[in-house]
């Protein structure tokens, strides 16, 4: 009886493998794969498909995540606490916008995580705000000087137009053209 049962289970397993191989071959032909891919598909026919794991198995296989406080070190006496005055003495104000953009990119990308990088960036911003305020004040002074001159020029041009009527200007132009014609005729007659 045991021998018969073993033969039956062996026959079932062989039948399952034959069916799996046949399914794999049909799947490979349907996918129109090349010969190497076909061999891989047929060779892996007996493998079980990967199924997503359940929540329970995910929790079991999850590695232990622990929290460790970082080691606290007392600041040494040589490390200054507070703002760094050395950064202000080393800082050079940017000359134009391109230089400012480059400096800001360097500070934010390279050293934004450091205290010194943040301080340099803040210092650059304050210097630029001061420059912008100075330029705005200079612009206002220039406008205060230029606008009265513009108004004076406009008034002078209006006075000149009022002092000579347009018809009189056209008359003098016609007289000058007539004199030129007479002079040209005199020259051509000689």
Automatic annotation (TrEMBL):
<dbReference type="Pfam" id="PF15867">
    <property type="entry name" value="Dynein_attach_N"/>
</dbReference>
<dbReference type="GO" id="GO:0036159">
    <property type="term" value="P:inner dynein arm assembly"/>
</dbReference>
<dbReference type="GO" id="GO:0003351">
    <property type="term" value="P:epithelial cilium movement involved in extracellular fluid movement"/>
</dbReference>
<dbReference type="GO" id="GO:0005576">
    <property type="term" value="C:extracellular region"/>
</dbReference>
<keyword id="KW-0175">Coiled coil</keyword>
<dbReference type="InterPro" id="IPR042422">
    <property type="entry name" value="CC103"/>
</dbReference>
<feature type="coiled-coil region">
    <location>
        <begin position="118"/>
        <end position="145"/>
    </location>
</feature>
<dbReference type="GO" id="GO:0036157">
    <property type="term" value="C:outer dynein arm"/>
</dbReference>
<feature type="domain" description="Dynein attachment factor N-terminal">
    <location>
        <begin position="2"/>
        <end position="56"/>
    </location>
</feature>
<protein>
    <recommendedName>
        <fullName>Dynein attachment factor N-terminal domain-containing protein</fullName>
    </recommendedName>
</protein>
<dbReference type="InterPro" id="IPR031733">
    <property type="entry name" value="Dynein_attach_N"/>
</dbReference>
<dbReference type="GO" id="GO:0007368">
    <property type="term" value="P:determination of left/right symmetry"/>
</dbReference>
């Amino acid at each position: 009886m045991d021998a018969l049962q073993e033969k039956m289970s062996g026959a079932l397993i062989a039948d399952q493998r034959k069916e799996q191989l046949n399914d794999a071959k049909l799947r490979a032909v349907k996918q129109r794969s090349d010969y190497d891919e076909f061999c891989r598909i047929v060779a892996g026919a007996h493998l079980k498909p990967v199924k997503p794991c359940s929540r329970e198995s995910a929790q079991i296989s999850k590695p232990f995540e622990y929290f460790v406080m970082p080691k606290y070190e007392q600041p040494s006496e040589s490390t200054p606490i507070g703002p760094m005055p050395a950064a202000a003495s080393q800082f050079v104000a940017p000359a134009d916008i391109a230089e400012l953009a480059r400096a800001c990119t360097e500070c934010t990308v390279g050293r934004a995580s450091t205290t010194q990088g943040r301080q340099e960036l803040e210092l650059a911003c304050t210097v630029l705000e001061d420059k912008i305020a100075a330029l705005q004040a200079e612009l206002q002074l220039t406008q205060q000087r230029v606008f009265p001159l513009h108004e004076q020029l406009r008034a002078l041009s209006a006075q000149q137009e009022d002092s000579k009527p347009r018809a009189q200007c056209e008359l003098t132009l016609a007289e000058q053209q007539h004199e030129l014609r007479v002079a040209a005729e005199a020259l051509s007659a000689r």
